[in-house]
Model the fold of this input.
Amino acid sequence: MVWVNGYKLITTKSNGIFTIEQQGRKTLISQSTQDIFQKHALLYNAASVLMRDKNSTYWVGTERGLCSFDPLNQGFLGNGPSQDLTRGIPSASVWSFTEEPTNRYFFVGSDNSVSRYDNRTGKFTQYFRQINLNKKINNSLFLSMYAFNANNILLGASDGLSLLKITSETSYSFTKIPYRGI
Done:
């Protein structure tokens, strides 16, 4: 749920996004849903994450990709899985977002990668992590994240905490952070 300028935005698992607006004693509720025949519709009704970035753009993660939108001006702009990984994300399911402090990079956590979107160039860079569990390859789900800066991102993954350290577009590492609990 996100609050902004008197509006509340709520994501749902199967009914898209609801926008709730308080106008005096009146409450207005509108719903945004997927519509394959509309260019600026939500990509999919199963919305898993919602965030407002520092540029006031709203980002929605769905099971079919990433959407950005301005609820008062335009419809949704979708960005789903792409063969050209500089123009999109490699996986349909989006689980988390974060933005680094300078506002240049926006990060997207999905089923098998962290994608970094460069606001200056409009291009994505992909950072894949695969772990080997008893000779089985298991892709990680990146369920939450926090960007300390443009090159160090704390990840809450399906297998625990990790740190993504980016040295360059092609050089990076995922380091598991041990945690023993209390």
Remarks:
- The chain has a mean pLDDT of 78.
- The first strand starts at residue 2 and ends at 4.
